Amino acid sequence: MKMVKSLILGSAAALVAVGGAQAADLPVKAKAVEYVKVCSLYGPGFYYIPGTDTCIKLSGYLRAEVVANSNSDYSGPFTGAGGAQNRFTNGYTWRSREDFDIDTRTATEYGVVRTYFDATFSWTTDSYVGNGNGSTTYAGGAPGNGSGGNVAGGSLGVYLAFIQFAGFTMGKAVSQFSAPWVNYPGNNFDGLVGGGGTVTGVNQFSYTAQFGNGVSLTLSAQDQTAYTQAGVNNLGNLLGLANPGAPAFGSLGPYGASDYAGTIAPDLIAMLRVDQAWGLFQASFAAHDNHAAYYGGTELSGHPDDKWGWAGQLALSIKNIPTGPGDTINIQGVYTNGATRYNLQDLTQAGATQMFGGTGVAGAYQSLGIGIAPDSVFVTGGEQQLVSTWGMRGAYVHNWNPYWNTSIYGAYAAITYNSTSKTFICGPAGNGVGGTFGINFGTAGLTSCNPDYNIAQIGTQTQWTPVKNLTFTADLIYQHLDQKYAGTVTAGSASIGKPVQVYELKDQNGVSLLLRAQRNW
């Protein structure tokens, strides 16, 4: 009996031990996994950030492109090595770029809170410049190129970074002055004249009021530094030189040196827009403070008073015109006085033009076209003289089918100096004698002195989208500089290989071709 009792107790103990071991091996109950959920409130591509009520969308593009006959990514052969039209001018400029966008949105009792960030990572072909002694230097990240001068380094661009809340936009965004298509009414070319720009964003504090039926009004204060500063040029430091006829394209030149003080007032912008099914209409106005430093090197030299410039722009878009589904016409016109960058926007080089070409004039080495467009010019003891411009740009886009489209586009800008400015630059008689142009270049061969000029641009673009979000583009543009100087000058520039010789003052032309492949995601 004792033996049976012992067997039963031993078996029970063994069962308890086995049961305990099995219980110890049972899995612990896991915390519920939070799966990423689609957010349908703000369109395709948005997802809820796990554990929050905020929706996020990640997007961007990868782009590879090459442009023929330009030393910048795509602004044409206007100045520097690009304008030289010799062995310093790039036959092509190549760029590879990745763009990365982060868009977040959260619904609140005050409306949607939105943040937006857009950055680019680029590597761009740069150019070589001369040292005047038979050797050259790789420019490496010259303004407008952005390669950073490092073979593997490339460059980072912060384009947009802003918060939107209850009608306010705060941060780096496209200027409220610009048309919705910014620089691209029907093109990929960055350097069109004839309207506002800042496609890479400008710091601002803006408020937009919605009145219903597609009508809105925006009031904005935006940073003017770099983006809308075309130059407050001090001619006095050149007029004081004692060596007339100095044959050089120096840092002064006939248009003096830029003489900015610290910024004290942002640009003030008002924009009225009407969005309808047929398209849109927009009217924009900007006030721009021109704040110069000193006539000379110290405070004792004095300074000119501030002068406010202004710009006005009208833009019109017509959609679904009878020529085909999705066809559009975009057009805008602008006038500026002391606010040149609202016409010759920040990505165009048309405001600082120095183009060379051939000549048929006996005794002349080559020809030269000049066009400079600051906001104002002044001389020692004098007030700022504002420079006026007007311009327009537009495009017609036709869709052949869902895969192919072609556009025809163009732009025009005219730059005008007032009579006082022309006296500073060309002298009282308008022949260069006693003016900065004559001091810099001499007057022996000059037959007409006039700093006014025009820029005309016309182009065509064709795009092929064989599959969704993959597009191949060919964009061809012709540009013409209509400058008003005539005769000959003696000049030279060692950095781009131009010897001190006689040059005919003449209109110039340039043709560029952009080929691009872009995959959006």
From TrEMBL:
<keyword id="KW-0472">Membrane</keyword>
<protein>
    <recommendedName>
        <fullName>Porin</fullName>
    </recommendedName>
</protein>
<keyword id="KW-0626">Porin</keyword>
<keyword id="KW-0998">Cell outer membrane</keyword>
<keyword id="KW-1134">Transmembrane beta strand</keyword>
<comment type="function">
    <text>Forms passive diffusion pores that allow small molecular weight hydrophilic materials across the outer membrane.</text>
</comment>
<keyword id="KW-0812">Transmembrane</keyword>
<feature type="signal peptide">
    <location>
        <begin position="1"/>
        <end position="23"/>
    </location>
</feature>
<keyword id="KW-0813">Transport</keyword>
<dbReference type="Pfam" id="PF02530">
    <property type="entry name" value="Porin_2"/>
</dbReference>
<keyword id="KW-0732">Signal</keyword>
<keyword id="KW-0406">Ion transport</keyword>
<comment type="similarity">
    <text>Belongs to the alphaproteobacteria porin family.</text>
</comment>
<dbReference type="InterPro" id="IPR003684">
    <property type="entry name" value="Porin_alphabac"/>
</dbReference>
